[in-house]
Amino acid sequence: VSANTSALAQDLAGIVGPRFVRSRPADLLTFAADGLPTHRAIPACVVFPGSTREVSALLAHLHAAGVPFVARGAGTGLSGGALAEAPAVLVALTRMARILAVDPANRRAVVEPGVVNATLARAAAPHGLRYAPDPSSQTACTIGGNVAENAGGPHCLKYGVTANHTLALEVVLAGGEVVRLGSASGEPWGPDLAGLFVGSEGTFGIATEITVRLVPLPPTVRTILADFTALRTAGEAVSRIIAEGIVPAALEMMDQSAIRIVEASIYAAGYPTDAAAVLLVECDGRAGGTAADIARAEAICREAGARGVRTASSAAERERLWQGRKKAFGAMGRISADLLVQDTTVPRTALPDVLERVAEIGARHRLRVTNVFHAGDGNLHPNLSFDASDPEQLERVAIASREIMEVCVAAGGTITGEHGVGVDKRKYLPLVFGPDDLGLMDAARGAFDPSGRANPGKVIPADGGRAWGARGPA
Amino acid sequence: VSGTVPAPLPAAATAVAEDVRRAIAEGARLQPRGAGTWWTDLAPGARALELGALNDVARLEPADLVVTAGAGCRLDALAARLAAAGVWLALDPPGSAARTVGSVLATGGAGPLAARYGAPRDQLLGLIVVAGNGVPLRMGGRVVKNVAGFDVAKAVVGGHGGFGAIIEAHLRLHAVPASDRSLAWAGSRRDVGDAAARVLAAGAAPAALEVLGPPLAHAVLASDGWALLVRDLGGTAAVDEELAVVAGAVGRTLRKVDAAPEAPWHAWRRAVGAWPVLLRIGADPAAWGDAAALARQHFGDGLGSSVTVPRGTVRVGCAAASSGTVSALRTEAARRGWPVVLERANASLRAAAGVWGALDPGALRLTERLRRVYDPNDVFAVPLLP
Question: Rounded to the nearest 10 degrees, what angle do helices B263-273 and B214-221 cross at?
Fold first, then answer.
C-alpha cells in the first residue's frame, strides 16, 4: 500500500468511519473481479458509504484529489463494469440497502442502491405487487447495479427491462453534487435524464435513491416445458408464439449441453437429457386468459415439432422447472474452471440460423458452447467453458467471442442485450456504431461527468469515437 | 463475416444533415416539422426543417414485431400498413391522425394506452437523428433488448426537436389482438375518482384506464358529468376477465354508458388534440384529483381534462393561457414533485413559458449541458426552457 493510497484511505475513513474502508491487499483481492472471468483489477481501496451524504462527501473529496472511482453493487455483473484499477477507488454500495418506501396506492417503491432485487420483490408481494425485472442473479444482484446495467431477466419479455420500471433517481455526480432525475410519476421535468442514466454503467455518477414502478402480481401463472429434438424447430416455435400475439411472461430456451449440465447437478429439474433443446414457456394473468394462452403455446410447440410438453401442475413443480433454468449458470461452474457468459440480441426470426452458426463457431474453436437464454426477446447467452489459466484457451475464447458478435450483428442484432459493455465489449461497439455515434455518447457522458472520473475506461472504446462538438459550415 | 461495419445511414439522413449544415453556414435557425398539425406555427425567426416527405416504411418485419418508419410517416397511414400485416403500434397520442411518427416521438406524449404500453420512449428501439452540428447519427438498434452503449435516444424522444431532428425510427410492434373492448361509466367527480381507485386496488391492469372531465366526457361519450373510460386488448378470454374485474370494482355507483370498441378513443384523440393550449402534469397516480384541482385553480374549467390514472398523467386544455399562469401552476406543482410540460401552445406562449419549467438547479444544469452536446451550433429554434 503506497503512502498516497494510505493517506487517501485515511481521508476516506474520516468520511465513512474506519470500519468502512478496506485497503489491505488481501481484502482488495476480494474485489478484484466481478462476474466476468477474463479480467481482474485491484482498486486502491474499497469504501462503503452508508448514506447519500457520505457518497457526496466521498466523491467531492475524490474530485478535489483528482482520483477516479467505480461504483459497485453485488459484483455480479458480467461485463467487467465494476472493476476498478488503482488509483481508482471502489465505492461499494452494499450498506445502502434500505427499502425506503413501498407505496401500493401509487404502485411504486423507493429504495437505496444496495437493495437486493429479490428482497424488493419480496417486500412488494404482501401488497399484491412485484418488481418485474428479474435477472438470473436476482437473489444477489442489487437494484443500483440493475440501474447501471439496464438489467433484464426472463420476465422482461412481457414486463420490460429496468429502464421501463425506473421512474426517478437521486444521483451523486462525480464532483459530489446531488441531483434528482425524473419524477416519481415517470414524467420527466425536461429531457429524460433518468432514462439516459439507466444503462450508463456507472460512468454518469452514482444512483443513491431509486424510485421504481411495481406491477400487480398475476393471479394465475402457468408454466410448460416443451421438449424438441432440434434447436431449429425450438427456435421456430419461439417466433411463432410471438408472432401469434401471445405475450408469454417468459419464453426461455436451453440447449442439450445446458440440459445435461443441469441434470447432472444438484439443481436437476427433470429435463429430458436426450432433447436437443427445451423451451420453458410461462404465461400469467387471469385464469381464463392464461389457460387459453398456455394451451395455444403448447399447440404451437407441438405443431413446430415438440416431442413432448410437460405442464407444471403445482407451484412446487413450477419452481423446479425454473430452478434448472435459473441455476444453470451455477451448474455450469462444475464443468470447467471458468465460464464466459456471452450476451447478444438478434431478431427473433434469426434465432435458428444464428444458433447454428454459434454452434459451428464453438466446434471450430474446440470450445464447449452452452446456450441458456431469453428466446422470446432474441437475447442469446452462448456460454463458453474454458480454463483462464491457459493462455491458448483464452485466445480461442476471444476469437470465438468476436465471431459470435459478428454473426449476431450481421443478422441485424447487437452486441449486448442486458449485460452491458463494461470492459469486455468496448472493442465490439464499433460493430454497431460509427465514430460519430460514439462521439456523441462520449459527449453525453461528459455532460454528467466532465472530468471523466466516474468508472473510467468503460463502455466507449478509447479510440472509437470521433471528437464531438460544433462544426463549421459544410 | 469479418469486417462487419455499422449499418449504413439512410440517404435521407445525409440529405437532412446537408440542410442543417447549410443553415449553420447561413446563420439560420431551424424548427423540425412533420405534417405541421401539432405545432402549427414556427418560432420567430426560424425556418422549417421539413421532414414530412420522409414517409417511407423502410422495413417492416411482422414476425419480429419491428418496423422502421421515416419521421414523416403519418400515424394513420402507418397504422393501415401495419394492420395489413397483422401488427400494430401502441401509440395513441392526442391530435390529428395525420400526425407523424417524428412528431409523436419528439413531443414524447403518450395517449391512454400508456397505462399498459408506456410512453413513446417505451415503444422506441432505435433512431436515426441529425444533431445540431449537422452530423447524422445512429442511436439504439432494431432489436427489442439492447444495452450497447449509452441510451442517447432518450434525450431526443420528448426533446421537441431541440435535441436533433428525427429522420427514422425503429419501433416495437404488437400482434393485432383478438379482442378490443371498451367500457364506460359516468358520474360525479368524486364517484368516478373513487371507482378508479377501486379498480387499481382490485389489481386490475387494463390497457387504458382514463378519467375524463365533463366537457371532454361529453365530446367523447355524449355523457354528462365525469366519465371513466376503460379499454382492454388481448385474447378474448383475457379481455373479458379483465373487464369483468374492472366492472366489479366500479360497482353500481356510476351510470353505465355505451362505448364502442374504438370510436371513443378516436374521439378522445381528436378532442384533446383540438385544445390550443395543452398542459401535461406528471402527478402521483393516487393524487390525480389534487392535480386536476390545482390546474382548475389556475385555468378555470378550461376546455377539459383527462387523466391516465395508472400513470398519474393529468392533461388539461384551454383556449389560451398566459406564461404567468403556466409558470404559477408549475411552481405549485413542483412543490408536490409534479412536472408540467407545455405539450401544445402557439409559438409566442412556447417562447414565453418554455416547453419545460420549474426544473431544480441540478437538473437544469444537466439539461443545458446536454442541449449544448446535442445541438452545439444552437441551430434548433425550440424554446425548451422559459
Answer: 130
What is the Cα–Cα distance from B334 to B272, expressed in whole angstroms?
24
Interface test with A, best of B59, B366, B371 (most A CBs within 10 A): B366
pLDDT at residue A474, as a whole number: 47
B337: nearest CB among A163, A184, A243: A184
pLDDT of residue A1: 59
- Nearest Cβ partner for B25 among A177, A417, A473: A473
- Interchain contact B249–A (C-beta under 8 A): no
pLDDT at position A464, please?
73
Q: Take residue A168 and report the three cell numbers written for it.
A: 426517478
Read off the pLDDT of residues B301-333 as tens digits, 9 standing for 90 and up. Answer: 889 999 999 999 999 999 999 999 999 999 999
Model pLDDT for residues B222-241, shown as the tens digit of each residue: 999 999 999 999 999 999 99
Q: What is the DSSP string of A44-103?
A: SEEE---SHHHHHHHHHHHHHHT--EEEESSS--SSSTT---TTSEEEE-TT---EEEEE
Q: Residue A5: which pLDDT band, with cuts at 50, 70 and 90?
A: confident
Looking at residue A140, what DSSP letter applies? T
Best mutation target, B130, B150, B309, to test chain A (most A CBs within 10 A):
B150
B47 and A CB contact within 8 Å: no
CB-count burial class (<10 Å; 0-12, 13-18, 19+) for B347: middle
Q: Answer yes or no: is pLDDT of A46 > 70.
A: yes
Query: Is pLDDT at B41 greater than 70 in this prediction?
Result: yes
**How many of the other CB atoms lie within 10 Å of CB of B386?**
17
Asked if the peptide bond before residue A87 counts as cis, ω within 30 degrees of 0, the response is yes
pTM for this structure? 0.97
Cα–Cα distance list, B335 to A239, B70, B289, B329 (Å): 48, 40, 16, 10
Paired residues of B306 in beta bridges: B212, B315
User: How many Å apart are CA B161 and CA B173, to the nearest integer?
Assistant: 24
> How close, in Å, is residue B323 to chain A by CA atoms?
17
Best mutation target, B61, B123, B147, B176, to test chain A (most A CBs within 10 A): B147
CB contact under 8 A, A417 and B6: no
Q: Do A414 and B148 lie within an 8 Å CB cutoff? A: yes
Which residues in chain B are closer than 8 Å to A293, comparing Cβ atoms? 235, 238
